[in-house]
Design goal:
Length: 109
């Protein structure tokens, strides 16, 4: 009988001890400490990722600006085709006049 009582008392003590350890392990201050540890370990890596992303964003914005500028230049060139045609016509007229002047001077001599 004493053995059963002793076993019952030991079981109660071990259950209470286990419950106390569980409460201590899950206490909010312990959880906050673990959270702080996690943040301390992962924060430098997160900061590095943020810095890398900002750098990539700046590079991307520069590339986008360059592409937009090139597109606007190409559009401007297509819109200026009539000006090039006008220049071509004027150059042809100038060459024709030059030839006429050269021919008339050659006849005089």
């Amino acid at each position: 009988m004493e053995d059963q009582e002793m076993q019952l008392k030991v079981r109660r003590v071990s259950d209470k001890f286990t419950e106390s350890m569980y409460v201590l392990a899950n206490e909010p201050s312990v959880a906050l400490y673990r959270l702080q540890e996690h943040v301390r370990r992962s924060l430098p890596e997160l900061v590095q990722h943020k810095t890398d992303m900002q750098s990539w964003e700046e590079q991307s914005q520069g590339a986008i600006y360059t592409v937009e500028y090139a597109c606007s230049a190409v559009k401007s060139m297509t819109n200026s085709s009539m000006y090039f045609k006008n220049i071509d016509s004027l150059l042809r007229q100038a060459i024709s006049m030059k030839e006429q002047i050269s021919n008339s001077q050659g006849r005089r001599v």
